[in-house]
Amino acid sequence: MRVVICGAGQVGFGIAEQLAAEENDVSVIDTSPELIQAIRDTLDVRGLVGHGAHPDVLSEAGIDQADMLIAVTLFDEVNMVACQVAHSLFNVPTKIARIRAQSYLQPHWADLFSTEHLPIDVIISPEVE
Is the pLDDT of residue 109 over 90? Predict the structure, then answer.
C-alpha cells in the first residue's frame, strides 16, 4: 500500500515506523528539515520538506498513486486542507486527519466531514480518545 503522511512529529514518526515495518511504500512530509532528516536516517521511507497541504508537495510525495493520506500535523486546518486537496485533485481513496479542536467535532457540525464538504474518512481526536 502507498501512504503519504503529513507530519513528522511523534505521531507521524510512529505511524511511518509501523507502516514501513509492514513493508508499505511510505512518504512523509513536514516543514521541519530536522524532523525529515531524522526520518530519513532512521526509517525506510521517503521524506520531503514542504507544506503538506500544498498540491505540488503532495504530488512530489507521490499522492497521485497513494491509497491513503494520513494528516497528523500540529494544525487541524492543515490536516483538513491536505485531505481536501488529496480528494479533490488526486482522488485518494482514504483520508485520515487528526483534529484536536473540539469545536470542529460538535455533533451539530457532523456534516462538515462529509464527501460533499471536507472529505475525511477517519478523524483521530486525541482529546476524545
Answer: no
Label residue 110 exposed, middle or buried (CB < 10 Å: 0-12, 13-18, 19+): exposed
Phi-psi label, residue 98: left if phi above 0, alpha if psi -120 to 50, beta otherwise: beta
The number of angstroms, rounded, from the C-alpha of 56 to the middle of its chain's C-alpha atoms is 15
Report yes or no: 105 and 125 within 8 Å, Cβ to Cβ: yes
CA distances from 32 to 12, 35, 64 (A): 13, 5, 23
Cell matching residue 55: 498540491
Residue-wise pLDDT tens digits, 64-79: 999 999 999 999 999 9
The torsion angles phi and psi of 112, rounded to 5 degrees, stand at -55, -40
Write the DSSP assignment of 18-40 as a string of letters. Answer: HHHHTT-EEEEEES-HHHHHHHH
